[in-house]
Amino acid sequence: xxxxxxxxxxxxxxxxxxxxxxxxxxxxxxxxxxxxxxxxxxxxxxxxxxxxxxxxxxxxxxxxxxxxxxxxxxxxxxxxxxxxxxxxxxxxxxxxxxxxxxxxxxxxxxxxxxxxxxxxxxxxxxxxxxxxxxxxxxxxxxxxxxxxxxxxxxxxxxxxxxxxxxxxxxxxxxxxxxxxxxxxxxxxxxxxxxxxxxxxxxxxxxxxxxxxxxxxxxxxxxxxxxxxxxxxxxxxxxxxxxxxxxxxxxxxxxxxxxxxxxxxxxxxxxxxxxxxxxxxxxxxxxxxxxxxxxxxxxxxxxxxxxxxxxxxxxxxxxxxxxxxxxxxxxxxxxxxxxxxxxxxxxxxxxxxxxxxxxxxxxxxxxxxxxxxxxxxxxxxxxxxxxxxxxxxxxxxxxxxxxxxxxxxxxxxxxxxxx
Length: 418
Hints:
With 418 residues, the chain is an alpha/beta fold.
């Protein structure tokens, strides 16, 4: 009997997540061959020696006997109430525990909040560059991602006028990622208020991805979107993964504010979807109250002298020393979106360069097109390694760019790094 191939679903045809794609698979192959790869493609604090605060680990351990059964589909009450208290502290007064959904990380919630909302061909405004899960989740749930530009020449901050021109009768929602992944931009109050007004005029749901809310540098100030959205529905998404360095706990939340009375059918649909997966990871939920109510150790990391601050400075310094690189200094999050100057390397291609850098210098970065950017001259790295490691990284990047400039490096010929 002849063997037949089992095809993937056609729904995956336009779904991309290159952060863990071909380059990452090749990096794993190289590591199995004995090469040491510096992997800068993913913001995974635990891989770089960051620890979850001990108080969170203890809270989880002490409540383990209460974590062996299913919990309510929206999550345990202490975790949801802690999210409510955080929102109230920020000035969002009209939120209760009933408005909070706990999920297996923000990733699961991105899928659920869109699945409960979208019909076929509905449009969602998504930033470009974006965190690619948003675009993928819109596509997987039958919608169309319409990208609004966050241009490098504007410091990657969107132009509200450009956003509004993209609104059509099919537009259902707008996604705001602030502080931004991949660019590190932190949006001004004026920009956020203008986006809120657009959403209210057109009755769009606002999805505010604020997973990096505690990571800002120097004079950057994070403004919660929910404090600006009043006359439409706003879903704020955040979690323990980044600010609290607990990626593996898989705990995120979506908190809804604004015109909830006009969104009861939608919220009931979201609860139905939450019920179908029974509940999210229960042990990790017991860390939420301690995390949000306890000492915010992230502040020690993002201020001068702190490790994330110093690593960010090492990236800025590495770019400044380069003959080829340019950078809008990241004001938040844990990434830098680095540009290669086209006048120095007019034939530069981010995907080909990322593969050559991996094969030849053993450094893994994410090409800019991985984030639905329309240009091919950027790549993203994380500032999670220590400053010394990042100095080494930029030496290797410069060496590879020198090879590109001389025409000696194309096609990824594997060679040892001296």
